[in-house]
Amino acid sequence: MTIEHFDVLIVGAGISGIGAGYHLQANCPSKTYVILEGRDCLGGTWDLFRYPGIRSDSDMYTLGYSFRPWTEAKSIADGPAILNYLRETAKDYGIDRKIRFRHFVKRASWSTENAQWTVEVEQGPEKELTRFTCNFLFMCSGYYNYAEGYTPDFPGTERFKGRIVHPQKWTDDIDYAGKRVIVIGSGATAVTLVPEMAKTAAHVTMLQRSPTYVATVPAEDKLANAMRRYLPAKLAYGLTRWKKVLLSMYFYNLSRRKPEGVKQFLLKQVREQLGPDYDVAKHFTPKYNPWDQRLCAVPNGDLFDAIKSNRASVVTDRIETFTEKGIKLESGTELEADLIVTATGLNLQVLSDLQISVDGAPVDMSKTLNYKGMMYSDVPNLASAFGYTNASWTLKCDLTCEYVCRLINHMDRTGLRQCTPRRNDPTLGEEPFLDFSSGYVQRTIDKFPKQGSKAPWKLYQNYALDIVSLKFGRVEDGAMEFSNPRPASAERKRLAS
Description:
Distance between the termini: 30 Å
CATH superfamily of the largest domain: FAD/NAD(P)-binding domain
Strand content: 15-25%
CATH topology of the largest domain: FAD/NAD(P)-binding domain
Oligomer: single chain
């Protein structure tokens, strides 16, 4: 078996992996890299999800890359537009030529003696086993299981005569025109599906066990579009990006300081949309505070428009059982449907369930401590891209990619081959990796690494603080151990070249 070697091996060709490819080319131009993608096309989330209305829940001025301006008019973009943006980015920078499709990474073993990872991969439909080696492993595969979404074990599903589908498994043959549809859920997927399906369905019911905070946002940023007409694209994009960042940071911090005030602001917005007679207390007033879970954004209030026009409705109740005609609720009401969509969430995964070992010892990721939101205690030369929970995914990923490049370049300068986060502070406490009450988080949080009680082990979910730490902070910070000098012969050869 021929084993290919690369300086950096990136796992995943979605928004994070493409960004990682760019930053390596820009900041570590002498390094070789490859991107291994388990599916047969790039795009990750934005290619996988095909359900009606699929769109971003972050504005594209921050979900877009720092190095490539978003130039479309819409701030909240649909899935096909985002996928096109990713494809063009990969093509324009030659990143697409570095991608190996149908390469599913299964295991990674670190050897301190060789200062490299050996990565085992299942290749192609036959799942032929192949191996790669690399000096640095960069996991950009997201945080959820692409193979299957989360669906609760609802009683009676076998009795239902219509079709049941999870949005993650949406296919082109699903016909809902003129039909009665129930969408189970109240998160970002549900509030996206309902107004889009309501355009042609007979009626769409959003069935929720409990409400979520929903905020109306403009589909387009008029100031951004105006600036783009009069300013250079990169300048206009940069100004808009920072405006969005600062506004979102202000709103998040205000939610933490004055949760009741923010709650009333959001509920007032809903009342203004739906009128004084609508039961906002029952259907749109959560029991938790704003940003204890992620807020749902609806561009131009499309969800509320669908409700006001009676093309859609919201029912807040619990499911007793599925029936032949639809769903019977605990209140005794039966909702009839031709199609039921279970927008009930994701199954989270840690590093795509990659099996990791260090010098022959298996690594239990739940026992590790997360370093700067990207690396793991006692695991050398491995980083992962994980975005913010309270802001755009890409903001943190851009910073992570730049920091990985800083680490690689520092090791080159010092002649060291290994960087390992070490938990050497006896006063350091442990906290959950994510401070979110959402069900999809709580179901699997015990499998995730922990975060520490203070820097550099604590996740502050704050872009400004991360810029200071990751862009300008020292890489030799007392927690990151650099070791494993390059052999003298290899060092002489490097200097000669």
